[in-house]
Design brief:
Rossmann fold; binds guanosine-5'-diphosphate-rhamnose; 2 domains; binds NADPH dihydro-nicotinamide-adenine-dinucleotide phosphate; alpha/beta; single chain; UDP-galactose 4-epimerase, domain 1; seven-stranded parallel beta sheet; four-stranded mixed beta sheet
């Protein structure tokens, strides 16, 4: 049988890295589009790198950008993919308020550029395309739990851009008979989640605080509720969505929701530290109530969580909870992780990372100052 060829945009991101590994294990040739950056941005996929001078290479990287249509068209023509996974995006909701036009260009029109490239190349019957849609589309609560038929009410420039991408994907499916699908994925996290998303910010800070490398962490809205799953379970679904008989749109979620505050408690709890929260709004504080882990020398009553207004968004999404019944029933999706195992996975990884920092610090490791 001929090898399948996948093209992944956003290959250097959390999902791109896990999906590349998953598809390589399935025997695909995997091509990824990465952006040029002044420093290496391939940390998450370095373990998959192959020397292009050896035989049987099956992982390939191409420079590209979703804001450059000629480049996308050329790559698709060269690669001749069977499947395209459009994961590239300016994916930070808060940052999208600072960069609304760029976000619309990359996240909204970027999707159109890919679809048009496929059509102009006459490959609309050959290529199956997955669009990384998001639970942010639901925005202001219209219905819970949220399903494939819940109305959208986006609450950020990011969500509005993704809404354009959602509908242009549906439109190209209906207008040109393309196999084009939206995966409406709820928040999914992992040890390689970007450091400024709230879960990773918390697991990194909790690890540092436990080890005495940081005093406290400043967060924004502790009342926000999210349906958090594990990225590994979700990237498997991206592939399953493109293997289905018919092109459709799918919700992927755990069906459980948790506040940011409770997520913080779970992370500290993982290392044996009990927190209690006092006060309201910007005056809320998280204090150490007890510590039953002899490894960590922490003062009881110490304030480790504080709120900083700068992390509040101009418009917030208060509550997300998804119903993935359709994906479970029609595609047989069974997630392997729950929130407890997600916290375990993220915390154990960040503790190892921070222990390394502690070891270097205690060993008197010096860092050269390049600006002396
Ligand atoms: P990340 O932020 O980790 O990765 C985004 C990727 O897109 C990176 O590889 C980034 O490159 C790349 N990128 C950004 N802008 C451009 C551009 N203009 N041209 C080409 N590449 C670009 O996101 P995730 O892996 O978490 O998410 C993957 C996709 O799924 C995104 O589209 C996101 O919006 C969506 N999504 C994510 C969810 C989640 O909970 N993780 C939930 C629902 C949807 P670089 O490394 O150079 O920055
Ligand atoms: P989200 O993820 O906006 O849901 O988008 P994020 O982790 O940034 O925020 C989740 C919730 O936590 C609240 N919050 C904070 N958020 C951040 N980043 N930093 C903080 O200090 C902080 N304090 C509280 C936020 O207000 C929010 O309510 C993610 C991205 O991956 C999107 O690309 C994706 O589409 C959606 O998930 C589904």
């Amino acid at each position: 049988m001929q090898k399948k060829i996948a093209l992944i945009t956003g290959v250097t991101g959390q999902d791109g890295a896990y999906l590349s590994e998953f598809l390589l294990k399935k025997g695909y040739d995997v091509h990824g589009i990465k952006r040029r950056s002044s420093l290496f941005n391939t940390d998450r996929i370095d373990h998959l790198y192959q020397d292009p001078h050896v035989d049987n290479q099956n992982f390939f990287l191409h420079y590209g950008d979703l804001t450059d249509s000629t480049n996308l068209t050329r790559i698709i023509q060269e690669v001749q993919p069977d499947e395209i996974y459009n994961l590239a995006a300016m994916s930070h909701v808060h940052v999208s308020f600072e960069m609304p036009e760029y976000t619309a260009n990359a996240d909204g029109i970027g999707t159109l550029r890919l679809l048009e490239a496929i059509r102009l190349l006459g490959m609309e019957k050959k290529i199956r395309i997955y669009q990384a849609s998001t639970s942010e589309l639901y925005g202001k609560v219209q219905e819970v739990p949220q399903t494939e038929t819940t109305p959208f009410y986006p609450r950020s420039p990011y969500a509005v851009a993704k809404m354009y991408a959602y509908w242009i994907t549906v439109n190209y499916r209906e207008a040109y008979g393309m196999y084009a699908c939206n995966g409406i994925l709820f928040n999914h996290e992992s040890p390689i989640r970007g450091e400024t998303f709230v879960t990773r910010k918390i697991t990194r800070a909790t690890s540092k605080i436990a080890l005495g490398l940081q005093e406290k962490i400043y967060l924004g809205n502790l009342d926000a509720k999210r349906d958090w799953g594990h990225a590994k379970d979700y990237i498997r679904m991206m592939w399953m969505i493109l293997q289905a008989e018919e092109a459709e749109d799918w919700v992927i979620a755990t069906g459980k929701t948790t506040t940011v505050r409770d997520f913080v408690k779970m992370c500290f709890g993982h290392v044996g530290i009990e927190l209690e929260f006092n006060g309201n709004g910007v005056n809320e504080k998280g204090i150490i109530k007890s510590c039953n882990n002899p490894k960590y020398q922490l003062e009881i009553g110490k304030e480790v969580i504080a709120v900083d207004e700068k992390y509040f968004r101009p418009t917030e999404v208060d509550l997300l909870i998804g119903d993935a019944s359709k994906a479970k029933e029609k595609l047989g999706w069974v997630p392997k992780h729950d929130l407890t195992s997600l916290v375990e996975d993220m915390m154990s990884s960040d503790i190892i990372l921070m222990e390394k920092q502690q070891y270097l610090k205690e060993g008197g490791h010096r860092i050269k100052n390049y600006f002396e």
